[in-house]
Amino acid sequence: MTSKSHANGDNSVLSFHGKDGAARLASVAFGVTQDIILQKVRESMSRLTSAPNITTDSLYNDLRYIWQHLQKADCHFRARLLVALNDQGIVQVVQKSWETVGHIVGTDNDASDSWKCIRLATSLLWIASDALAETCREVTHSGLLLTVVKHLRSMSSNNVLDKPRKLYFLKAMLGLCHNVVRNHTEGKDVLKTAHGVEILKQLYCSANSTNMMLKAKSLIVLSYLVDEKESEVIHASSDTISFILGILDASLSSADHASTKYGMNSLEIVLGLNNIALHDTNKLTVVRCGAVSMYTQLLESSDPQEQTAAGNGVWCLSFVKENKLWIKEEQQCIKALRCLANKGNTPAGHAARGALWEIFRDVEISHREEQEANARHVMISYQWESQSIMVMVKDRLKQAGYKVWMDVEFMSGSTLEAMALAVEKAAVILICMTEKYKESPSCRTESEYVFRLRKDIVPLRLQHKYQPDGWLGMLVGSRLYFDFSSEELVDKQMPKLIKELGTRGFIERPLEDAIDGIPITQIPEKAVHSEKSSQGVTSWSRNVVRDWLENIGLKSLADRLTDVDGMLLSEMIKLERKSPEFFYHSLKSDFSLSFCDILKLSRGLSQLQL
Predict the structure, then answer these.
(1) Distance between CA 139 and CA 125 in Å, rounded?
(2) What angle do CA 524, 443, 553 make, to 5 degrees?
(3) In whole angstroms, what separates CA 530 from the centre of its chain?
(4) For residue range 387-436, what is the model confidence (pLDDT) as tens digits?
(5) Bridge partners for 506 per DSSP
(6) Domain 374-516, what architecture?
(7) Same fold, 235-360 and 374-516
(8) Which fold has domain 235-360?
(9) Which class in CATH covers the domain with range 535-606?
(10) Distance (Å, rounded) from C-alpha 551 to C-alpha 480?
């Protein structure tokens, strides 16, 4: 055969000769073996999904076969096996196995066939949901997640820690919840609607020092579900955070950055810590418990995901002034951040540059008045997922005669400095509110700089029914916002937004019948009269004063001050500055203004120029 192959010019047989050929032959044989294993896994799953009851010896052997090959597989074959498990219905198998779980976990016979089957099936799903977002989606949509909530509720109200079975099952339920909230957004909504916060809080509080893993898992899952209004729910003790850091330390000690004892890898641990630290009450505790040195190891990792997670973590932690001092002392951490910051337009580089900017920024505000006088543009501060709508808004504003600054590239290089300059040169900033905006370190850095420079802001809502809380809620306060939560609302809201912006950021130009194709009727009234209004509010007509009052949310006051023009309004400003006590007492006694309305008027007057 060999000589015939030579004669035909076929070298395929020769390719397996020698040491290299033997290696290639072994590789081909291994590939064939993997295909055979995959086929047997599919056959096992077919039997498991079709059986009315999976707690038999033969079906246990099927589960055991899958488990053993999953444990021996390398990362590439393991991924193929997990996809096969998901496609062949592991979620349905677990649903079937749990039909009797309530009775079985209450006994002590760990060797029973039923329990062995339930444990193996649950463990397989636990692993698959950790690796595959599609499995988490199936857990949510199949109703299995609600079943998990039901079991958690039952276990949170009973002493479940006295039996090994119950303890394992509880850890598995928390593990599934953790995977779902990390990998599937809808799962978070399902858990919140099913009172998952209250259940997990009870589990967190009931777990004692001998079951710190339950405490840690409950806290991490909770941190994905609560907003800053509920931050006290996850106000963690130093013991709990120290335990989580202990798991991270154990994972960093292994070659693959995974802790076999706790069943967690470095990436998911640090993402959990980052999520916990999004709530300001925990930032100090995380740093005081020694997190920075471990974050430094991840910054120096060869894994870009670990680098990015660590960079975002240090960035988030540095929002607390005391933490900045701690981090500055960790020279190895600063060195690692600077090394990553030079890696160009990558998520890790972006995170490192953001952290360094936050740690070392030292803003001087003594000369801001002169810069304010030269401020010309409208700045758009937004989170990346809102870009498509905000590009539409930017284009409409430009058409209406405004100068607009919007970062439409992924923030990189010297763009943080460009962002700082953009804030400094802005006449007004549009704050595009979403949950992800609030959680973004980039957006928080930007917004805090806006706050420090006392810039005018206009809030836009880019997420349906979103109500800002935490630092974002404090930033926007009681300001009226404009709803741009869908593209369909852009046309409706643009005239209102333009009216609110007024001359701020508007480029002065000779007026014609139309400007850039936009009829003059769509240009804000104050912009149309900008050249005639060089003396400030003193030249305003009564109609302009009325529009201004309505614009700041005081329509009822506008109806009562119909005779007030710009001259009288300027006298009102002078009175407010010279005799504030008399001024505000008169507003309350003569006009019966509420405290909230007084605040609106006070802020509005402070923005006007005489």
Answers:
(1) 9
(2) 35
(3) 41
(4) 999 999 998 898 888 889 988 754 444 467 788 888 988 999 999 999 99
(5) 402
(6) 3-Layer(aba) Sandwich (3.40)
(7) no
(8) Leucine-rich Repeat Variant (1.25.10)
(9) mainly alpha
(10) 9
